[in-house]
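pinging the channel bc i need a second pair of eyes. not urgent but kinda urgent?? the chain im working w is below, pasted from the shared doc
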Amino acid sequence: MELRHLKTFKFAADYLNFTKVAQQLNFTQPAVTAQIQTLEKELEQQLFIRIGNKIFLTPAGEILKTYTDQLFPIVEEIESSFAELSNSYGNVTIAATEGFWTYYFPNIIPELLKQYPQVQLKLISCNRDEIIKGIESNKYDIGIISGELYKNGMTNIVISEDDELVTVVSKELYAKYPVDQLLTKFPFLQLQADGCYDTRISKYFRQMKLLSQNVIEFGSLEGIKMAVLNNIGVGMGASVSLKEEINNGDLVPILVTENIKIKTSIITLKEKENLETIQSFINVIQKNWNSISTMA
């Protein structure tokens, strides 16, 4: 049985007038009659009888009407649910590192909530490796990482190529020591080892012929910034996270001729990249990320 034939039957059972059914469904009356006859043939039952100028349901027609009256409200619910899905609906989990949440997402989250109020958001802060594992295991829907990731089954979308890692020192240490002594006398403060950062920083040190006596790893950019402000050592962090302190003179950038540029990417499972809600969220993040990068 085809759903369209059942729909025609339902209208016919409600109106008991094939002419009105044809008008409602924008069919010709012969088309209505043909669909009813097809349904009767499939069911091997007569559904209508004509007595004089009136049409009546047969016992088989009464039984079928009972079921079509139950069926089509369910069909409408299905269509409504899928319509909501096509307009971004459901749950979305976004994972990113602490620095991204602190400096980028405060401007992005209100835009997501404004455009997609019916979507339930879950926001997770974790390191790069945990983000990748979470995407692979379908624990997270969208991940924001530094660098790029190209693996089977995953999609990588570069949303920024201009993020810089800058080396900074407090104004007190900068005034007291020559630049060439800072890294030999004080520890170098950096984020915990990350494949994206670690290789670039090592190369940076070799190119600049620098060697720190000690390296201290931090779990967050904020930790590095506070340590540098308290004269603990020389730190490296994302320019967007240090902009305010550099502008007001509390931190001084050094070795500015060779700042490291890092790409930022959105990652998701290939199976999810074409889902309406995921694609919509990626578009909003990408659009607003670029505007934040420009302001920074």
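so The domain at 163-262 is CATH 3.40.190.10 (D-Maltodextrin-Binding Protein; domain 2). and The mean pLDDT is 86. — does that match what u expected or am i reading it wrong
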